[in-house]
Amino acid sequence: MHLRSDLTRATTVALCGLLVSSLSAAKPDVLSLTTRSRTETTKGSGRFHATTKQASWNAKQTAIVVCDMWDLHHCLNATLRGGEMAPRMNQVLKTAREMGVTIIHAPSSCTAAYQDHPARRNALKTPRSENLPKEIAKWCHRIPSEEQGKYPIDQSDGGEDDDPVEHAAWAKKLQDMGRNPRAPWKKQTDLLDIADNDFVSDNGEEIWSVMEQRGISNVILLGVHTNMCVLGRPFGLRQMAKNGKNVVLMRDMTDTMYNPKRAPFVSHFTGTDLIVDHIEQWVCPTITSDQIIGGKPFTFKNDKRPHLVIVMAEREYRTNESLPKFAAEQLGQEFKVSLVHANDKERNDLPSIEVLQDADLALISVRRRVLPAAQMKILRAFVDSGKPILGIRTANHAFVLRGQQPPKGTIAWQDWDADIFGGSYTNHHGNGPKTKVVMAKGAGSHPILASVNVDKLVGNGSLYVVNPLAKGTHPLIIGSIPDKPAEPLAWTFERSDGGKSFYTSLGHIQDFENPEFIRFLKNAILWGAELKTGG
C-alpha cells in the first residue's frame, strides 16, 4: 500500500515536472533591460536628468544590428579599438542568438564577401515588405527632435585621432596589402561569428523587410561609428526611431570617429560620451552589454579617466550654470563627468543620484536639501566607500535643515559638515566688501595651489563663518573682510572613513570668471583623483 502510494506520488511529481518543463520551454526568452534616457529638468533649461526604466523584451521580437564592424579601417586607432571591442561583442551576439534574438550583420559595402553564405541568402530571399517606410534606403542625417539640441562635437575632419607618423605608416601598410588606404574594408571582422541562421545585409529595405517578416518591434544597434554610421545609415538609430521601432543603442559596444584636436577639445572617449548624451536626449535610449551577458560594462583599456559626479542643487549661486560650463571647458581631457541636477519641481529630490554608485569621486554643490531614504542610502554608501569628496560654497550645509524637521519620507544629515569637511559652519557675514584672500601658513607647497596666483584670488560672495576646523584639516587659503575675524576659505580634510575631502566657501558665480579660481578648483579635483596638478 505504501509502495503503491509512493509510486503514485512519484508519478505525479514527474508529470508535474514535465508540465512545468513544457511550459518553460514554450515561454519565450525575455531580455530584462535597463534603458537610459535624458530628460530636461524643465523644458528649454538645457539641463538633463539621466533617467532609467526597466524594460522586458520578447527575444523573438528583438533584433540586434551589427553596424560596420569592418575587418580594417583607414584610422589605425579605430581599427585597434574595434578589435579590442569585438570579442565581448561576439559574446553578446552568441548569448542573444541562443535566446532567440535575430542577428543582422550590416558591414556596409562588404556584402559581396558573403554572397555564398547562408546568412546572406537569408536576407536575399526575404520578400520585400509591402509597407517600406519612405526613404528607408537612404542615409538619415538628422531627425526633427535633434533640432532642439546642439550637435556636441566637430567631426568635419573625419574624426581620425591617429598620430600623424603612425597614420602614415598604417596607410602604407594598407597599400602594401593591396587595400585602398581610404576605404580598406573588405568584410566584417572575423572576430564576430556569423551563424547560418543570421542575416547579412547593408540595405535598408532588406533589413526592414527582415524585421517586418519576423515580427521585430525591438532593435538594438551596436558597432561603429556612433556619430556617423550607427546614427545615420539606412538601418541606423535615426531611421529605426523615426519609423516606429523600439530602438536602443548599446553604448558600451560602440566607438566614435572624433579627433581631440577638434572642438570641444576633449579626450576621444569623452567625445563618445558626448555623442551618447546627444542620442539619449534626442534620438533613443541606451543600454549596456552586461545586461545581456553579465559582468560589468565594457571599457576600452586606454580609457583611464576617473569618473567624477557633480551634484548640483542650489539656486542662490547658480552653480547649475557655472559648474557644467566649467566641466565642459576644463575636465573633458582627464575625467568622465556625470551631472546630477535637482528636480525643478520637487526640492528634496536628486534624480539620477544613483550614478554615484559608479563614481570615483564627487563634487557637491547643494544647499539645505533633505533626501528620500533610498537616495540618502546611496549618498551614505558613497561616503562609506572612502572615495574623495569635494565641496564648494553651500556644500557645507548641503543636507542640513536649520530649525526645521525634514518633510515626511526624507532624511537629513545634520552632521554632514563635521563628518565630511571637518568644518563647523554657523552662518555668513552679510554681503558687502569682497573677501581678501591670502595663503594659509605652510600651504605653499600643496598641489592644489600649484600654479595658482593666490594674490589674484578674491571672494565675491559673503564670507562664511566656519571656525573652528576639526583635527585633520589643513587650511589652504584664508579670507578676511574689515572688522571681522579671518576665516579659512579652503582646506583639505582626512575623514574618519579614510577618505579625503576638499572644501572651499568660494563658488559665487562671479568667482568662475577668475582664471585663478578656475585653476584652483581644477587642481582640487585633480588632487582628489590623484592626478598631476598645475598644468
How many helices? The count is 13
CATH fold title of the largest domain: Rossmann fold
Rounded mean pLDDT is 94
Query: Considering DSSP H and I runs of 4 or more, what fraction of the residues is helical?
Result: 25-40%
Q: Which architecture of the largest domain would the CATH scheme give at its second level?
A: 3-Layer(aba) Sandwich
Count of distinct structural domains: 2
Strand elements, count: 21
Explain what you see:
The protein is elongated. The model is unreliable at 1-27 (pLDDT under 50). A nine-stranded mixed sheet has the order 10-9-11-13-21-20-19-16-17. A six-stranded parallel sheet has the order 5-4-3-6-7-8, sandwiched between helices. It folds into two domains: 30-293, Isochorismatase-like (Rossmann fold, 3-Layer(aba) Sandwich), CATH 3.40.50.850; 307-528, Rossmann fold, CATH 3.40.50.880. The protein has 535 residues and is an alpha/beta fold. The protein has helices spanning 2-26, 76-99, 118-124, 164-176, 204-213, 226-232, 237-242, 268-282, 290-293, 319-330, 373-384, 416-421, 515-528, and strands spanning 30-40, 48-58, 62-67, 102-106, 199-200, 218-223, 246-254, 286-287, 307-313, 336-341, 361-366, 371-372, 389-392, 410-411, 427-428, 435-439, 458-459, 464-465, 473-480, 487-494, 500-504. The longest helix is centred in the first third of the chain and has 25 residues, at 2-26.
